[in-house]
Amino acid sequence: MPTEIVDGVYDITCKHDESYMGGARYRVFLFDGDVPTIIDAAFPDTTNRLIDGIEKTGVVPERLLITHGDGDHIGGYNALVDRYGVETWVPNNLSVSTRTEGVGLDTDPDHRFSDGERIGRFEAVHVPGHTEDSYAFVDERDGIAVMGDVAMGSDLRGFPPGYFVLPPEVWGGDVNSAERNLEKLLEYEFEVGLVYHGSSVLEDARDTLEAFVNFPGKVYYETVVRNR
């Protein structure tokens, strides 16, 4: 069943793998509003569950945004286009992952976006590291950041929920860049940070992210050790 995780925003969990990483969840987010928008599309083989979840919300998506090209984020792209005729937006440097079979775009996207582009209520923020094409979407009006895979919920790694962690190295990418580039999100104001894996952070999300990025040891090193 979909869950209205904050007002007008639905978490549609398409897969829950209890055997992997403490219970990995794979989800999409559906935003109600002037232009109902779905962000990401889950796996190719979860499209029936995704569409069923959308139907249960009563919201008909008109726009699809893609955060990056991993199969669990872009796999249902074709099904959503076929079912709803959504306007599609994908990263200008989209790289479709080869790690998931059956992933591909049957129709060219309507739009390609780059860092800083406004798409309705959202601003696209390029945060490479997990993948080169990784983006987050920030809606400062309502104080919501959709993190893509630039960060994940701490409970995915066995910690208490309510915090952010980096994607694990086994999922590919450059962990150092992934951490360093999170600083870009601190330029924005948001209260809620929605993640695709693990539990989202629903209060003080920006401050929580800043505490993770600018931890005391880093601040000490940058202000004291580096300047010796």
UniProtKB/TrEMBL annotation:
Keyword terms of this UniProt record: Hydrolase
Which residues are the signal sequence here?
A: none
Q: Which domain of life is it from?
A: Archaea
Q: Which PANTHER family match?
A: METALLO-BETA-LACTAMASE DOMAIN-CONTAINING, METALLO-BETA-LACTAMASE DOMAIN-CONTAINING PROTEIN
A GO molecular-function descriptor: hydrolase activity
SUPFAM superfamilies for the chain: Metallo-hydrolase/oxidoreductase
Q: Name one Pfam family in it.
A: Lactamase_B
**What is the name listed in the Swiss-Prot or TrEMBL entry for this protein?**
MBL fold metallo-hydrolase
InterPro entries, alphabetized: Metallo-B-lactamas, NDM-1-like, RibonucZ/Hydroxyglut_hydro
Where the record annotates domain Metallo-beta-lactamase, the positions are: 25-197
